[in-house]
Design brief:
By secondary structure, the chain is mostly helical. It contains 12 helices and no strands.
Length: 255
């Protein structure tokens, strides 16, 4: 046990490498978490963008925060899928028969989600720059954006862990992500909420994605963030803590 604790970080590094190799060998994962969000961005900017009134001259600047959140929501569905696969194949039992820390397998999946989503976010931002995205923000606002996206990814990853560890079928393991991917469409990610019917607008303005999108958009344009950043952080931290508690509970029950 002492040896396992001593090598916790090296064991976790091995698990991270294992999961990352699975991602690089999965064309479906790469297409879903990177190519699809870029396709959405191209579609909305070059097909629908001319008909959408946002009050800004550069629609890709307005659109980018929502596209980044869609990419993260798409990416965490594979965390649930890979966890489900490991449970079904008895991978947990095999690793736990070795002298390694029991939680490193789960943390390996969580870190893989953080790293892979960070890579897809960087790729999407680079494509957005080619499409005309420009930001007047300095280093601190960019670091704040990175922090919000990391918290958002962690929060959804622990939600995915619950689904992956408790699902009875592969469809059940990944289906939970569909509402998460759909949430940005009912927010201020693509159009201002003022243009929505009253009931839809009330939902859009009070769900977590709108506060996160508004906070990131204000930071990237170097504008006052107001209360949106605190609301966004409260949503991310709240979801993270609740999801972590239940994910660990399910994990201990399964192993």
């Amino acid at each position: 046990m002492e040896a396992a604790k001593k090598h916790f970080f090296s064991d976790m590094g091995v698990m991270l490498g294992r999961s990352m190799r699975h991602i690089t060998r999965s064309m479906d994962t790469i297409i879903t978490v990177t190519i699809m969000p870029i396709a959405f961005m191209l579609l909305f900017v070059y097909v629908f963008g001319g008909a959408i009134q946002t009050g800004t001259e550069n629609y890709v600047n307005y659109l980018l925060p929502g596209i980044l959140l869609i990419a993260v929501a798409s990416g965490i569905s594979y965390t649930a899928f890979r966890l489900f696969t490991d449970v079904q194949r008895g991978i947990f039992e095999r690793f736990h028969s070795m002298p390694i820390s029991r939680s490193t397998l789960l943390w390996g999946h969580v870190l893989t989600s953080l790293v892979s989503n960070a890579i897809s976010v960087v790729v999407i931002i680079l494509v957005a720059l080619i499409m005309g995205f420009r930001s007047s923000a300095g280093l601190l606002p960019w670091l704040a954006v990175a922090g919000i996206l990391m918290l958002f990814t962690l929060a959804l990853t622990w939600v995915a862990a619950i689904a992956g560890l408790s699902a009875k079928s592969v469809d059940g393991a990944s289906a939970f992500s569909y509402p998460l991917i759909f949430l940005p469409f009912i927010s201020s990610a693509f159009v201002p909420t003022e243009s929505m019917p009253s009931v839809v607008r009330a939902f859009a303005e009070n769900q977590p994605v709108t506060a996160i999108v508004e906070a990131i958009r204000a930071l990237l344009s170097d504008q006052p963030v107001g209360n949106d950043i605190w609301v966004a952080l409260a949503w991310c931290v709240g979801i993270l803590l609740v999801a972590y508690f239940f994910a660990m509970k399910v994990y201990k029950k399964r192993v």
